[in-house]
Amino acid sequence: MEPHPDLVALARRRTRRLAHVTVTTGMAEAVPLPDASLDVVHARWAYFFGPGSEPGLAELDRVVRRGGTALVVDNDPTRSTFGGWFRRGYPDVDPAAVERFWSTHGWTREPVDMGWRFTSRADLEAVVRIELPTAVAEDVLASHEGLEVDYAVNVWWKRF
What we know:
Order of helices and strands: HEHEHHEHHE
Oligomer: single chain
Radius of gyration: 17 Å
Largest sheet: 4 strands, mixed
CATH superfamily: Vaccinia Virus protein VP39
Shape: globular
CATH class: Alpha Beta
CATH architecture: 3-Layer(aba) Sandwich
Number of helices: 6
Number of domains: 1
Strand content: 25-35%
Distance between the termini: 20 Å
CATH topology: Rossmann fold
């Protein structure tokens, strides 16, 4: 499921030969699927800010079957080079409030260290410009050398 029509079209092209894959347009707050219809949900970079995501979590409660699992992968602004960039780009995000939000909603955190490795500087620059506000992106790109960035995420998970 993807809310952006251009990305839906791209995903449909990439998966057109996979008989058991359906790409659907939708938002986390209004999942276009029946109640208790999913065994596993995997959301990436969809709930960065924790508080305010309650409507999306309510939809997960509705669509995930009993015994199912949901996994949410989001930035960890407290660790890594990208985490520092993220803090600069989104200074109003309070990591402690985000962690409290997930914990009080019954989710478990698994910190994961990863990284980005690009084959060209143009690719690295394109991704950084998507992820960060323009001024911050340009500033970090001016000071960052190479084609790699260490990156930390939190995998939040919950069994229903």
